[in-house]
Design a protein that fits this description.
The protein has helices at 15-27, 67-76, 80-83, 116-122, 124-139, 148-156, 158-173, 183-188, 194-205, 229-242, 289-295, 302-309, 357-360, 390-403, 434-442, 452-455, 461-477, 483-486; strands at residues 7-11, 31-36, 47-50, 53-56, 92-96, 99-103, 106-109, 221-225, 246-249, 251-258, 263-270, 275-279, 282-285, 313-323, 341-344, 353-356, 371-379, 412-425, 447-449. The chain is α/β, with parallel strands linked by helices. Strands 7-6-15-16-17-14-18 form a 7-stranded mixed β-sheet. The chain has a 5-stranded parallel β-sheet with strand order 9-2-1-13-19, with helices on one face. Strands 10-11-12 form a 3-stranded antiparallel β-sheet. The radius of gyration is 23 Å and the shape is globular. It starts with 6 loop residues before the first strand and ends in a 12-residue tail after the last helix.
């Protein structure tokens, strides 16, 4: 590859990597090369297409408290009612959000509300215990939060924590809450509490709700690409190519070359095993931190390698089930519930969440007379679930959904299994020493870590995009202090509740 001008290599074609590439193409004359090991763009925000049905890997709502991000989305894909007349498919739809918890074979509001249905579902005795537990923790809080368990109990009381948070969180991470850093709660549920939920109800009654002043879990409407979350990243990839950028799909970074604290290039290998070296002036990395450090060919302090080797990831599997109908129905005679996703709190199944793709966008489903759902599982790469044959995993998912009363297995007409490695960077293992990696990588002047896996931080799409935008700002202004990147998803205004 002949080098004629300054070049930025970007590792990863997820939201962070593609945002960085598109921003550089718009704002500079640099040569942009994106290296992506998968064939598709979008990272864990990509959309899988199966026989005319579209399936997202986890639900991705397009809502942000950042005006910059919102305008970026709407410039790339206008909102449908503003572009509906021109026949353009590259649009966002406005969608109503309904997420509920499925527990005790009943539906509960998410977040939990003090509705009559909640009272009836829980029973007065359990509700009284929850109230007394909450009053007690308000009077005698845990002064020093050492774990995620402490974080949850301080905000909801022990009884509510044990009812709605403990088991689901253990499903998600595969370890007990007491083994997880409280920082995960700070990034995911900071600002959400019983008090916040009550205040939100009061504002809705008074019709004074400002969407940017409430926690994201309480938002009732959001934007969503017409054909799935990955649709917007496919549009972004086209724009990058039109601006002269290059996306190398199916290529994996095997080495990062450094000299005197400066990245000089990367070596990539394609699916055929062909290897080549790409020189660069800057490197923006959204690849998993553990793999980044392992790929460094220069001297790396042993303590940095130790921390990187000890970083843990939680992996993800989803089963797409095409159904004739669901046993749980919705309004207007629909043969499926109105939810976008449903948190499965039941303790007698492994499934963690169900997406109803018909409700995300009607264009996700080929046949209006069918129901297309995703049954999601949190696993570890290489474990008994990850290595299970697809037909056995599909059978397990269908059996579990029938067991909890959601479907009849006889109504399953087709299915697909998708595995997603390193979907969730974990807040245990050596995560508590992540600062050692940050300090060392920050000293490499032309290396910028961005995105969820790139920073080993549970960023949302907008957070990942903001880290990429900050990295581009630094490259174009010559700024060497990278603290602006690490501040994203730290300030309260950027937090999403979960």
């Amino acid at each position: 590859m002949k080098k004629s001008k300054k070049r930025v290599v970007i590792v990863g074609a997820g939201p962070a990597g593609l945002t960085a590439a598109l921003e550089l193409g718009r704002r500079s004359d640099t040569e942009v090369v994106v290296v992506e090991q998968d064939d598709a763009v979008g990272g864990i925000s990509r959309t899988v297409r199966y026989k005319g049905n579209n399936m997202d890997l986890g639900g991705h709502r397009y809502f942000s408290k950042s005006d910059t991000v919102t305008k970026w989305w709407e410039e790339l894909m206008p909102v449908a009612d503003e572009a509906a007349q021109d026949g353009n498919d590259d649009v966002m739809l406005r969608r109503n959000r309904l997420s509920r918890i499925y527990f005790l074979r009943r539906f509960f509001d998410y977040p939990i509300s003090l509705s009559w249905q909640t009272v009836r579902n829980l029973g007065m005795r359990r509700l009284i215990r929850i109230g007394l537990s909450y009053i007690r923790i308000r009077l005698f809080p845990i002064r020093k939060e050492r774990s995620l368990e402490d974080f949850y109990i301080n905000r909801f009381g022990r009884e509510l924590y044990e009812t709605f948070f403990r088991d689901y969180t253990q499903k998600l991470w595969g370890v007990e809450c007491r083994a997880i850093s409280p920082e995960w709660g700070s990034q995911r549920v900071k600002g959400l509490s019983i008090g916040a939920a009550l205040a939100h109800i009061a504002r809705r009654i008074g019709r004074r709700t400002d969407p940017k002043k409430v926690e994201t879990s309480l938002i009732d409407r959001f934007l969503y690409p017409k054909f799935g979350s990955g649709h917007i990243w496919e549009v972004a990839a086209r724009r990058i190519a039109e601006a002269g950028g290059e996306i190398l799909s199916g290529n994996r970074v095997t080495a990062i070359h450094t000299e005197n604290g400066h990245v000089t290039g990367v070596t990539v290998v394609d699916k055929l095993g062909c290897e080549r070296r790409i020189e660069c002036d800057w490197l923006i990395s959204s690849m998993p931190v553990r793999e980044l450090i392992a790929a460094m060919d220069g001297p790396v302090p042993p303590e940095v390698r130790e921390v990187a080797d000890g970083l843990i990831y939680r992996d993800f599997m989803t089963v797409g089930l095409l159904l004739k109908r669901m046993k749980i129905t919705g309004p207007e005679g629909k043969c499926y519930p109105p939810d976008t996703w449903i948190y499965i709190q039941e303790r007698d199944v492994k499934a963690g969440r169900v997406q109803v793709f018909n409700n995300w966008s009607p264009y996700m489903v080929r046949d209006d007379g069918t129901v297309w759902i995703g049954v999601e599982y949190f696993v570890d790469e290489g474990d008994e679930y990850w290595t299970m044959a697809d037909e056995d995993f599909i059978a397990m998912a269908a059996r579990e959904m029938e067991h909890i009363g959601m479907i009849d297995r006889a109504d399953v007409s087709d299915a697909i299994v998708v595995r997603v490695p390193k979907a969730y960077p974990a807040y245990f293992g050596t995560y508590g020493r992540m600062e050692e990696i940050r300090r060392w990588t920050d000293r490499i002047d032309n290396l910028f870590l961005v995105g969820r896996n790139g920073m080993h931080r549970y960023n949302n799409i907008d957070h990942s995009m903001l880290t990429a935008m900050a990295a581009v700002d630094n490259i174009l202004t010559g700024r060497t202090d990278k603290s602006n990147i690490w501040q994203v998803n730290v300030e309260q205004e950027y937090h999403e509740s979960k």
